[in-house]
Every structure is written in structure tokens, then in C-alpha cells.
């Protein structure tokens, strides 16, 4: 289904052509003076230079050609040559009714893709902390948007489950529980199915081992040897590693679930390891990799680079692989399993160089096709009110579950101020609204920008916040329920009709923007554009609500038209918040 702007632009292109001007001058945009008109065309201003005519002359000719066009209520030329446009409300009502019947409210994707989206990036044996929030929240929303647009999307958490951290845990475990069968070299039986630790023990073991390795050289060397033994397939350590994975992944699934985030794949760096030897050999055989100071590197520079980029190190001088090697090997695995034509990586923007290197080596070595789209969606830092990275009061890294608990408490307190519900209902509502506050607070910022995490502002029921959006949805739900009760459960899925109500027209125009906003958000990987849209749409609805007696309207045809419009509004709002990764309660 064509966007409403496309339909208006088509009419203006025809009008410019009829008057023997270039049709490209007919581009229409949303008005920057909504007090004067809804849309505007500035093509006559550009045409003045091309055709050596006064812009107002060109504008008047175009306006004359559109006088009988039923799409418009008015088309007016104003000095020095702008064209102000107001749409006919019947045309807008028809557009909304077409949109209501269309698949996905008119969103179209002419070339669906197979997309692998890599986000989350949690490390096993460690709790999720605030630093994991943005990747999870942004990645989940981008996944939902791309999937809604008809793409086949495979999401992968890409766990950090390999490397020295495993050796550190194994070595510390041996110090604490030396009698475990995994450390008895004479043991030949089956290894226990039950893990020798709980998640809380595991989360305490790693930081303790990490701190010890910084001051105890012998411990550090032992951990290094344990890592090598694990990576060479030593059975007792493989058994411990499997326990670490099982206990960690169960906990991660629970914590990501609390964020309404899920993944199709729970693969990690370990899954890519079998592909590394072949990758290294291939880079050598293709004469792409060469030795530099004992390390194996691949040059990634291009002639049109504006700054010098360092080569990508694929093997350190001690023979160890690096993150880049693991990421390249993972791409080989993904190519074999899914053959995607689009990769999206969601990570801290400080990793931009790393992904530039990985993408360039992937193409240079023909790991992926030259036409494969590889995008890095880099995000900024979440800071506290002091403008510094968000910490606990004592300066430590805050666990994600603590952050969620804080924002839920802030919302709960606000609900209890008005005390119209039970504590149990307030608690359940606070979890739903708290998640919206948290996610909307993050997603409403452009991903690449740093932002201030302000619990009081995010949890507010007023302003550009998640709770305000949900409050609007709940308000519409309440009106629709009352209408059904009054009218004997009448259908609310009615045709939208036009009235003379100015705020109704404004709401209709906002609803009509849906397909343009979503298609643009998918193209630019930009959930913040959906946040801006739901805020504008909520404001438009609330203006309409305050200016219109919806249920008290005596003209039944008019009332049915109002109900049809707000029913479409709530459907669009609920679709949008689902794409952002949260939902609305039945009441607040």
C-alpha cells in the first residue's frame, strides 16, 4: 500500500509535468507550519532557478492544475512560491479504511531478506549488568521490526563462553572443591549430571578468580593451562564447562525473559572454534594473511579510506585466536547454516573498528558474497544523573535485575499514590509498566547517542515516557469497553468516517503515517523513530479525547466514526509497542 505522502506527491508530480516542468519538483513534505497547512510543496522555489521564472508564477500554475482534485480541501500558493496543502477529510478517511483492511496496516517489503542479528553478547558465569541492557533492548526491537516487515530473521545471543574466564573458574573450583571427580586424574567413570555449583556460587567464583589472577602469578598460569586443556578437549574440564553452560544459560534465559527478550539461537564463541583452523589456513592460502611482529594479520585498508585503519589480527604471536578470529569463524558457520544476505551486529559503538575489520576481512576472503549487507549498529553509553556510566551507590556495576527492581518500585509507588487497586494488582501492573518505562526510556534515544538514565523521569505518567504511552492505550481500552457495554457488545471494527472535528482530522493524519514510519525504522534500524511516532500519536489522541465527547455524542453515525478511529488508533499503538518490545496492561 502506498504511503499517503507518495499519493500526494504523485498528484503534484503530474501537475508539474502538465505545466512542462520537471516532475521531480513535485515532492511533498509534512508542513513545518501546521498552523497554516498539513503538507507543503517547495518545488516552485527550486524550479525558479531552472526555468528562470518567479517561483510564485510556477506555484500558481501548479495550483491551478490541482483546483478540481478531490484529494485536496485546499491547495494554495503563497509568497514567495510555497504551496500549502490541506487534504480532503473524505480522502483521509478512505485511506484509513484501506489501511485497516490491508496486511500489516499497509507496510510493504518488496525484497524480503534473510537477516542474522547478533545482539545480547552476555558472558556465561557472570550476571547480566546494566551494560547489557542496550544491546538486548535495541537488538530485540530491531529483530521485531525486521520480522514484522516480512524478513526471515535469525537472532543469536552469541555468548562469551570460551577463553581464559573458563580456565579461571575451573582453577578456582579446584581450589575450593579439590575432591570433585573432575580433578581426580585416575577417575574413569561417568561424570555427574548435577552441576557442582549453583548460579549464585558460580557468579561469585568468577570475580574471585579474576581478582586472584591479578595478584597471584602461579594461579594465573594454572588458569591459563586449564584453558588450554579445555580447548584441547580434556574430558573432565569439558564436563565442568557443560555444567557452567547449563547453569548459566538457564539463568540468562530467565533474566532476558524478564526483559521480554528472546533469541532463536543460544550459540557462543565455543561453537565457532572448529571453524578457526580452516579459516586461518584459507587466509594463508589466499595470501591475505601475513606475519607481523610474530602475529598473523590481514590488511583491510582501501584506497578511499579517509584515515589509516590497522590490520586485523587473526592469530596472536603465542598462537591464540582473538575476538576477530572467533567472529569470522562464526560468520563461516552462519553462512553454512543460513546463507543470510544481511548481517546486523548490535554492540557498543566503541567496537566500531573491530566490526569494520571483521566485515572487510569477510568480503576480502569471500567468506560472504560481495553484495551481502553487513551493518554495525553501535550504541552509546547509559549514564547516571552525574553524566558518568551508571553505577551502584558504592560505585560498583549494577546488576540488571537490580535496575529492573528499582524502576518497578518507582512505578509501584506512583500507582499506590492513587490507591484504587489491590497491592497484588499494583505489583503486576508495575512490572508491565516498569518494563515499558525502562525500554522506552532507552529506545526513545537514537541508539548511537549516550543518554541519562533518570528513573523519576522514565517512570512518570506524563511527558515522553513509556507509562504515558501505556496510559493512553488503557484510556482507549476503557472507552471501547464502555461503548461495548452501552451498545450491547456492538462491533468496534467499523469504517472510519470524516467529520468537521479539527482534532479528529489531526488524529487521522497521525494514524495514516504508520506505514511510512515503520518502513523507515526498518530501513534505518531506528526504533527511536517508532518512539517519536507513538508519542505524537498519543498526543493527537489525547487532544481529540479532551475536545470531543466521544461516548456522549448523540449522532450515532458520528459516534460510530469516532469509535472506528480510536479502535484503529489503539491497534496501531499496540502494534508499535510490540515492535518496541513491551505491552500494555488492561488498566492503570
UniProtKB/TrEMBL annotation:
Can you quote a single GO CC term?
Answer: cytoplasm
* Top enzyme category: ligase
Pfam families assigned: Arg_tRNA_synt_N (PF03485), DALR_1 (PF05746), tRNA-synt_1d (PF00750)
Q: Where in the cell is it found?
A: Cytoplasm
Q: Which domain of life is it from?
A: Bacteria
* Keywords for the protein's UniProt record, in alphabetical order: Aminoacyl-tRNA synthetase, ATP-binding, Cytoplasm, Ligase, Nucleotide-binding, Protein biosynthesis
| Reactions that this protein is recorded to catalyse | tRNA(Arg) + L-arginine + ATP = L-arginyl-tRNA(Arg) + AMP + diphosphate
- The residue ranges of the Arginyl tRNA synthetase N-terminal domain are 2-87
Domain DALR anticodon binding residues, every copy:
469-588
One example of the protein's molecular function in GO is: ATP binding
Entry-linked InterPro entries: Arg-tRNA-ligase, Arg-tRNA-synth_N, Arg-tRNA-synth_N_sf, ArgRS_core, DALR_anticod-bd, Rossmann-like_a/b/a_fold, tRNAsynth_Ia_anticodon-bd
> Where is this chain primarily localised?
cytoplasm
What residue intervals hold the motif 'HIGH' region?
122-132
Q: Which GO terms describe its biological process?
A: arginyl-tRNA aminoacylation
Identify the EC number(s).
Answer: 6.1.1.19
Q: Does the keyword Protein biosynthesis apply?
A: yes
User: How does this polypeptide assemble, per the annotation?
Assistant: Monomer.
List the PANTHER family hit by this protein, alphabetically: ARGININE--TRNA LIGASE, MITOCHONDRIAL-RELATED (PTHR11956:SF11), ARGINYL-TRNA SYNTHETASE (PTHR11956)
The UniProt similarity line reads: Belongs to the class-I aminoacyl-tRNA synthetase family.
Its protein name is: Arginine--tRNA ligase
Tell me what gene encodes this.
argS
Amino acid at each position: 500500500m502506498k504511503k499517503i505522502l507518495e499519493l500526494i506527491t504523485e498528484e503534484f508530480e503530474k501537475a508539474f509535468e502538465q505545466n512542462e516542468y520537471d516532475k521531480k519538483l513535485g515532492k511533498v513534505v509534512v508542513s513545518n507550519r501546521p498552523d497554516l497547512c498539513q503538507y507543503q510543496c517547495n518545488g516552485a522555489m527550486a524550479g525558479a532557478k531552472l526555468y528562470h521564472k518567479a517561483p510564485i508564477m510556477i506555484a500558481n500554475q501548479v495550483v491551478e492544475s490541482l483546483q478540481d482534485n478531490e484529494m485536496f480541501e485546499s491547495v494554495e500558493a503563497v509568497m514567495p512560491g510555497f504551496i500549502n496543502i490541506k487534504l480532503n477529510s473524505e480522502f483521509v478517511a478512505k485511506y484509513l479504511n484501506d489501511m485497516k483492511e490491508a496486511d500489516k496496516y499497509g507496510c510493504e517489503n518488496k525484497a524480503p531478506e534473510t537477516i542474522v542479528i547478533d545482539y545480547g553478547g552476555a558472558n556465561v558465569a557472570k550476571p547480566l549488568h546494566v551494560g547489557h541492557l542496550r544491546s538486548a533492548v535495541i537488538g530485540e526491537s530491531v529483530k521485531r521490526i525486521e520480522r514484522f516487515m516480512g524478513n526471515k530473521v535469525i537472532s543469536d545471543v552469541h555468548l562469551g563462553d570460551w577463553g581464559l574466564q573458563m580456565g579461571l573458574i575451573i582453577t578456582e573450583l579446584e581450589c575450593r572443591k579439590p575432591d570433585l571427580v573432575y580433578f581426580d586424574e585416575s577417575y574413569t567413570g561417568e561424570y555427574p549430571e548435577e552441576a557442582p555449583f549453583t548460579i549464585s556460587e558460580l557468579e561469585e567464583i568468577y570475580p574471585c578468580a579474576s581478582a586472584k589472577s591479578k595478584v597471584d602469578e602461579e594461579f594465573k598460569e594454572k588458569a591459563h593451562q586449564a584453558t588450554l586443556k579445555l580447548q584441547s578437549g580434556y574430558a573432565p574440564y569439558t564436563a565442568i564447562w557443560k555444567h557452567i553452560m547449563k547453569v548459566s544459560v538457564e539463568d540468562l534465559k530467565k533474566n532476558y525473559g524478564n526483559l521480554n527478550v528472546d533469541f532463536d539461537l543460544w550459540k557462543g564463541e565455543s561453537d565457532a572454534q572448529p571453524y578457526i583452523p580452516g579459516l586461518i589456513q584459507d587466509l594463508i592460502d589466499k595470501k591475505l594473511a601475513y606475519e607481523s611482529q610474530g602475529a598473523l594479520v590481514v590488511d583491510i585498508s582501501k584506497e578511499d579510506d579517509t584515515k589509516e585503519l590497522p590490520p586485523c589480527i587473526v592469530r596472536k604471536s603465542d598462537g591464540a585466536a582473538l575476538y576477530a578470529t572467533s567472529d569470522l569463524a562464526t560468520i563461516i558457520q552462519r553462512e553454512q547454516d543460513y546463507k543470510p544476505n544481511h548481517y546486523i551486529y548490535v554492540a557498543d559503538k566503541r567496537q566500531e573498528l573491530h566490526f569494520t575489520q571483521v566485515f572487510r576481512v569477510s568480503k576480502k576472503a569471500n567468506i560472504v558474497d560481495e553484495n551481502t549487507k553487513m551493518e554495525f549498529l553501535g550504541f552509546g553509553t547509559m549514564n547516571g544523573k552525574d553524566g558518568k556510566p551508571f553505577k551502584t551507590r558504592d560505585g560498583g556495576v549494577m546488576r540488571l535485575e537490580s535496575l529492573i527492581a528499582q524502576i518497578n518500585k518507582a512505578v509501584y509507588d506512583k500507582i499506590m499514590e492513587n490507591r484504587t487497586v489491590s497491592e497484588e494488582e499494583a505489583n503486576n501492573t508495575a512490572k508491565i509498566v516498569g518494563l515499558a518505562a525502562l525500554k522506552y526510556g532507552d529506545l526513545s534515544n537514537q541508539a548511537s547517542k549516550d543518554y541519562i538514565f533518570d528513573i523519576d523521569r522514565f517512570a512518570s505518567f506524563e511527558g515522553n515516557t513509556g507509562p504515558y504511552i501505556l496510559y493512553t492505550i488503557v484510556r482507549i481500552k476503557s472507552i471501547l469497553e464502555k461503548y461495548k457495554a452501552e451498545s450491547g457488545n456492538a462491533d468496534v471494527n467499523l469504517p472510519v468516517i470524516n467529520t468537521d472535528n479539527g482534532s479528529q482530522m489531526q488524529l487521522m493524519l497521525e494514524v495514516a503515517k504508520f506505514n511510512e514510519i515503520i518502513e523507515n525504522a526498518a530501513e534505518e534500524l531506528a526504533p527511536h523513530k517508532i518512539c517519536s511516532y507513538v508519542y505524537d500519536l498519543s498526543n493527537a489522541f489525547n487532544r481529540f479525547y479532551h475536545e470531543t465527547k466521544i461516548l456522549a455524542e448523540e449522532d450515532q453515525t458520528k459516534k460510530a466514526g469516532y469509535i472506528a478511529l480510536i479502535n484503529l488508533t489503539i491497534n496501531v499503538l499496540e502494534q508499535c509497542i510490540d515492535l518496541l518490545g513491551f505491552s500494555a496492561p488492561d488498566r492503570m
